[in-house]
Amino acid sequence: MNWNLEDGEAINFQQPFMYELAYYCNISMLQPWNSIEETIPCLIEEWKLLKDKVEQLFKMRNTKEVTEPMKQGIALFIQLLHWSNGLPVCLSPIQYEQLTIKPVNVKERLEFILSRPHLYHSFIQLVELMTEMEKQWFKVVAINKAKQ
């Protein structure tokens, strides 16, 4: 299936890393890391919706159901981390040194979240990482527009 933003198709975040899977299998599909000005805002909006859902689960102390949406949030962050740098996600292992746009201590912070996705502290850390990435991405966009 081809996802094409110009044709009005919506980017799909329900299947994490499906665009990278297609890319590494040489299947013609949207490459969101090549059109970040269109895809990153969509990803950020998806995160905001998911964040509200996870926040509600923690408020209701429903820790059994929080792991899956947290994994979705982690996947969104990993996509944001790579796509903001114009790269497809590579998970084995993440090449942090190739990423110029990234939060401080991202490797250690992400490892903490990945090892304990069900904890509230992991959620708070994920929120902070997403916020930092969003700020850095908007800063890069602003600098690029100023250069033009």
UniProtKB/TrEMBL annotation:
Pfam families listed in its UniProt record:
YpoC (PF21747)
Q: Provide the YpoC-like domain boundaries.
A: 37-145
InterPro entries found in the cross-reference section: YpoC
What this protein is called in its record is: YpoC-like domain-containing protein
Species annotation: Robertmurraya mangrovi
> What lineage, starting at the top, does this entry show?
Bacteria, Bacillati, Bacillota, Bacilli, Bacillales
